[in-house]
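Me: Here is a favour to ask of a fellow structure person. Could you put it straight underneath, so I can go through it closely?

Assistant:
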Amino acid sequence: MTLRLVNSLPADKNGFENMRNTVSRIAAAMFGLVLAGQAGAAPCQKDMSFERWLDSFKKEAAAQGISPAAIAAASPQMTFDPAIIKRDRAQGVFQQTFLQFSDRMVGGYRMPTAQKKMKQYADLFARVEKKYGVPAPVLTAFWGLESDFGADFGKYSIIRSLTTLAYDCRRPDFFRTQLFDALRIIQRGDQPVGDMVGDWAGEFGGMQFTASDYYKNAVDFDGDGRRDLIHSVPDTLASAANFLVSLGWRRGEPWLQEVRVPENLPWDQADLNIKHPVKQWAAWGVKPAHGALPAGDLPASLILPMGRHGPAFLAYPNFQAFLGWNSAMVYSTTVAYFATRLAGAPVVDHEGAKRVQPLSTQQVMDLQQLLLKQGYDIGPVDGKVGNGTRGAIKQAQMKAGLPADSYPTAELIERLRGGRAER
């Protein structure tokens, strides 16, 4: 649930397994070596055998207060699985645009199914909102994209996956913590080992929580004495609301709103890290695409997921909770947009985006090389438009006299090649 990678996009319900992989681990597994072509991947932690490592891990678990019974229950599944390492390494770069991604994730059967779920569990959603302040559309949007409303949790043993990834050397500290917390979930009596089945990277349940998010944020909302995010819809929805509150959710406030922007907008202000009161955006000519802008001085950022020609949104403080759940902008914006649709907003405008020509992975790498050569700090040249690359694009656009919307374009590549945007 924390950091996810986007691989491929299904067109319909039968492709949900691919969809769940689509919204899995943007940053958690992007920087591995590519071992997809190998028949059996081996861990890169070679200084200790797996058996010796596992024995040491169990001793540390016991020292941390995890019971012998919990360790014994998990032990049959605490094995190394080369297929998990192979999955971890064989991940590609996501270059789908916001509209390509959101149209598939929000379109088709998912919208009417979400509306039915909201009606089916209306009383439950009302109770959850009363306690936590998170409305039904937000919880339903996450529920739909994380597990298809509980229809697909994944097929991998959580204990085996976390054991494998904790032994591997790519992110051992992160997954070691997850494995400790998975044992604590067992010890607390929330789940038996056999029911802990989910995504290959250790996320499970209706909201695809990591083990640590589960252990820290799960609540018993149905009163049966367990925090059960696999079988209990009340526990699942309330736990998601509790997690969002821990991420800064503010009761009664909006999260995302589609807007129309003027051609003469100060484009350099369109940045998730820049906030202005709504009245300032209105003074600059930003207008709601539907409804009205919030009254008062509520701070907001203007985000342009496809540049100045594509859809535009004002992101309010509650949007940070979406990013806390998942740091990938395309995913977080899609979930937030899905929630606005469920709250009554119409389909986002597609007209202006017809002018947008997305760059290929190779073009993005070419752009990154040019930015790097001219002294911009972009991080790795990897074909991914992350925060570092977007920031450098914005600076280069300003130097070149282009609208600084932070979106990579062929025009900027040509300007950089021509030397007209050098620092």
In short: Residues 308 and 405 are 6 Å apart (CA to CA). The longest helix spans residues 172-188.
